[in-house]
Write a structure and sequence with these properties.
This protein is mainly α and 85 residues long. It folds into 2 domains: 46 residues, no CATH class; 36 residues.
Length: 85
Amino acid sequence: MDAMVPRIQQVMDDLIDEFPAAGGSFDLFDKVANLLPAQMIHDLLGIPEESRSGLLRWTNLEVAAGHCLRSDAVTRRTWRSIWPS
């Protein structure tokens, strides 16, 4: 875990840099609570940078729909389109 601290700090710094200027508003969940863990999981799994936004979008849609990684053909095709093997 200690080895991940520099990467976590780098990702958090990047997310903070994207916060709006003073007086602006933002959704803390979308900007931090959702993205920081996702970035760390992507790093641990070795998911290429170009596949990350699609994978996060797909995961959010699956969880919101209550499917949570179902194993039907549509989900497999969607997964392959986002992250080809």
